């Protein structure tokens, strides 16, 4: 049975599953070019990734994680909401487009918009935060209505130097204004069983 997941314009976000997504996770999270902009950039073992997938199979109520599929059902990345604080109604986001052949084709924006709609329209969150070293991710945030909130100076150590981290966030009211202005659409709810 196909899991419909969350539908965007071109992507579907489906629960991460080891039998379907583990090999790509190992390949992507051990590629220094892909992980250079992530918090965990030193690689992972098969055992670490299996343990991660097992945790996601029994999700803690403060982390949600999906595999990103393109319109051809090809697994192209992962997206998440981390550190969900249900009382304060906020979370931080994470994203990795691992398939280089689809970089620059709008999949990251579609995935972020889909996750944002779920967070505000279904989960009743008020704020989603993100931080990045990656210039491409800055453009994704801006296209998706996230606002630049500042720079954390010399926050990350990479390649023998301290780098600034750019801080972004979107609020529920920002999302609602974008929807009223015609940006965005509806998200199909998690389906069936």
Q: Classify the helix fraction into a percent range.
A: 25-40%
Give the H and E element order.
EEHHHEEEHEHEEH
Count all strands and give the number.
8
- Please report which band the strand proportion falls in: under 5%, 5-15%, 15-25%, 25-35%, 35-45% or over 45%: 25-35%
Overall 3D shape: globular
- Could you name the ranges where pLDDT drops below 50 across 5 or more consecutive residues? 183-193
Helix segment tally? 6
Sheet with the most strands, sense and barrel status: 8 strands, mixed
The N- and C-terminal alpha carbons lie at a distance of 8 Å
Structural class: alpha+beta
How are the strands ordered across the major sheet?
1-2-3-4-5-6-8-7
User: What is the CA-based Rg, rounded?
Assistant: 16 Å
Average pLDDT over all residues: 87
Give an overview of the whole structure.
There is one protein chain. The chain is globular. The relative contact order is 0.16. The model is unreliable at 183-193 (pLDDT under 50). α1 packs across α3. β1 (6-7) and β2 (12-15) form a beta hairpin. With 193 residues, it is of the alpha+beta class. 32% of the residues lie in helices and 31% in strands. It has helices spanning 18-28, 32-35, 46-57, 107-122, 135-143, 172-180; strands spanning 6-7, 12-15, 64-69, 75-85, 90-97, 127-132, 147-158, 161-171. An eight-stranded mixed beta sheet has the order 1-2-3-4-5-6-8-7, with helices on both faces. The chain is built from six helices and eight strands.
């Amino acid at each position: 049975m196909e899991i419909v997941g969350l539908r965007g314009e071109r992507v579907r976000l489906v629960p991460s599953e080891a039998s379907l997504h583990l090999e790509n996770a190992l390949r992507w999270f051990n590629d220094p070019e892909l992980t250079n902009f992530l918090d965990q950039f030193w690689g992972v073992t098969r055992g670490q990734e299996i343990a991660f997938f097992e945790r996601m199979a029994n999700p803690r109520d403060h982390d949600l994680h999906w595999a990103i599929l393109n319109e051809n059902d090809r697994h192209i990345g992962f997206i998440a909401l981390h550190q969900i604080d249900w009382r304060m109604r906020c979370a931080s986001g994470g994203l990795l487009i691992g398939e280089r052949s689809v970089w620059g084709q709008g999949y990251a924006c579609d995935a972020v918009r889909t996750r944002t709609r779920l967070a505000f329209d279904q989960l009743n969150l008020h704020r989603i935060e993100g931080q990045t070293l990656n210039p491409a991710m800055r453009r994704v945030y801006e296209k998706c209505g996230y606002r630049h909130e500042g720079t954390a100076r010399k926050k990350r150590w990479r390649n023998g130097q301290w780098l600034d981290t750019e801080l972004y966030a979107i609020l529920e009211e920002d999302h609602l204004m974008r929807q009223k202005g015609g940006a965005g659409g509806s998200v199909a709810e998690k389906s069936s069983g």
